[in-house]
Amino acid sequence: MHQQDPDEIPLSELLGNSGESVPRVVSVARQGGFGAPSIQVAKKSSSAALSEDELPLALLIGTERKKECSRRKGKVEPCRKAPKRKCERMKAEKHRKAKKLQATSTKHRAEDESIKWCSLEHNGVLFPPEYEPHGRPLLYDGCEIALPPEAEEVATFYASKLGTVYLEKETFRKNFFDDFRKTLPVDLRKRIVKLEHCDFSRIREYLDELKERKQSMPPSKRKELREAEAQRVAHYTVAIVDGRKEKVANYRVEPPGLFLGRGDHPLMGRVKRRIFPEDVTLNLGRDAPIPPCPFKGHDWGSIVHNQRVTWLACWRDPISDEYKYVWLSASSHFKAMSDQEKFEKAQQLSKHITKIRNEYTKGLESADRHTQQRSVALYLIDKLALRVGNEKGEDEADTVGCCSLRVEHITLQEPNIVQLDFLGKDSMRYFNRVRVEALVFHRLREFLKGKRVSDNVFDELKVEELNDYLKSLMPGLSAKVFRTYNASYTLDKLLHSVKTPGPDIHSRLLFYNEANKDVAVLCNHQRSLPKTHSLMLERLRDKLEESRAYLEALKMARGKAQASPDSRAQVTRWRRPVVEIPEDCSLAERKRIREEAEKRPKEKQVVNMGLASITRGIAQTQEKIRRLEADLKTRDSLATVSLSTSKINYLDPRITVAWCKRHEVPIERIFPRALQEKFMWSMGVSEDFRFPISNVVSNDPSGAST
Q1: What's the Cα-to-Cα distance from 391 to each of 7, 317, 479, rounded to whole Å?
Q2: Which of 323, 325, 430, 650 is an active site residue?
Q3: Which of 292, 298, 467, 690 could form a disulfide with 277 if both were Cys (CB 3.0 to 4.6 A apart)?
Q4: What is the mean pLDDT of the segment spanning 416-440?
Q5: What is the pLDDT of residues 69-80, one digit of tens each?
Q6: What pLDDT is recorded for position 14?
Q7: Which three-class secondary structure string do you get for 147-208?
Q8: What is the pTM of this model?
Q9: Element (H, E) at 340
Q10: What pLDDT is recorded for position 174?
Q11: CATH 2.170.11.10: which residues of the chain?
Q12: DSSP state letter for 373
């Protein structure tokens, strides 16, 4: 499910003249549970109906002033029991939330006001199936306890995670147990007080039985179920926009479960409750039929007709409280236009980049501390492709960007080396030692002087101020535009650094992947090491060794065949026996047969071959060896680097398409079918295409880090 900054909140107060909504049905979860909501019809929006956390900033400030006046008159007693720091922290958190809501509202109203569509029709969203109780008990201190369905479902979520790294994390266990106890009736809540005494093994046995049953299913039955499922969901996969059919990307509502998060997220282990129709807002054309609600006794939260946005449906995430949207697929007309505009904007930056860099270089020499901090931040965003970074609440992961860097994240080493070490987006670690300009190093040392490790480096710089400053330099400029520009520029530069990247397609692909890797490192696109990484490398090395031995045998046989009167010779090859797997074999049986085959020793095979067959076999084996060598090197080099993120979001696809045309590399070897459909607009580009280059040398990943 795509998650986006709440730029397009579908509330009536944010729609203005662009949308129209029916009375909104809001859901209130049952007390102490995560099940079906009770239904209440909300009144027209008014400030009185909002909680203090949801009030606009101006209204919140006004409320605080009224409270202060009341205190002065003696009507309200100030809080004396709460510690001062706690009060300040709570007040700052409320202020942050109100400010975020106000910024969201303003940003929505300032969004592109163009009409995106005239007619829009779709069939709503697909909800996960209702929970079916299995009746397996929980063991507490060795005693069986029959759980009510609501608690049993949550316990099953936890049982599915047994044996994973999540259960090793205290935060995960604590959050789960707190939410689990809320689903228990009062008598069981008094009895079940410690997670350590809970045994979920009976429930896990049930899940293992389900898995075994599924794997033991014959292929014909699995095919039948797949076809039935495809027919069931086909209704939701297509929307009609202005009379044309468009694919829907994410029509499924996320099922309930335990929130996992990234890294050490403070909310990991919390129960994500089930989403109901009352939570969902649908965006439809005014004349489009409203899809029937799939659950009896329920109704859609609201229906809007907002032609200035392109989402089809949305709801609030139960954990993050952010909006989640249903969009059209990446190959849709809307997405194609959006992608093309994004890369065109990055190209426009090339016309301004020299002026912008001169501007922030000049700002480094300013006597004003605010200007100094803004210039250093912009330098880091430009040269290191850092994100801007936003303020975080106590219930959010401690991820940071440029503006939210703290003293603990930076280490300075003479003469001009800066070491950055922090958790970036999705809690992925960013670690880099980079050589910077002498004046940048000097300013950073001044910013750190006299501060505690928990203090902000850029204490006089706000995210909103930096964003406004970027827009003043170029319309629509943001840190993401910088990342897109520098990523695309770097790829274009690296791909043109070598005139002939290799004699064959395998060496050319290896060259491209290495260039893509440099861009991914620049943007800190990392991934965890795959669990099967070592096993995959071992298998590749085994195949490579087998192919090399076979090549030597073929070469020896060629000499014998050339000397033989009948031009034939025997070729010896050692390989594992080929195992035939029956068609109607279950998945579990297939896995068992393959594992047994891998354990068998290699068998000697002797084949009598003619000279022509031997010569052809040598060429084919040499090609296979080159492919295996390139594959082995690529897998080992890219084990912890994600190439797909930069391909999808930051690299102008025309650079790749032009390079493939120049060097006769099939585009499908780099772009899978989904990306080919997403970037169909770029496929007609000339092989001479170059990403615009500024007069100032841009980032060079090979020379940025020490």
Answers
A1: 17, 20, 16
A2: 650
A3: 298
A4: 90
A5: 444 334 433 433
A6: 40
A7: CCHHHHHHHHHHHCCCCCHHHHCHHHHHHHHHHHHHCCCHHHHHHCCCHHHEECHHHHHHHH
A8: 0.71
A9: helix 333-363
A10: 96
A11: 2-127+231-326
A12: H
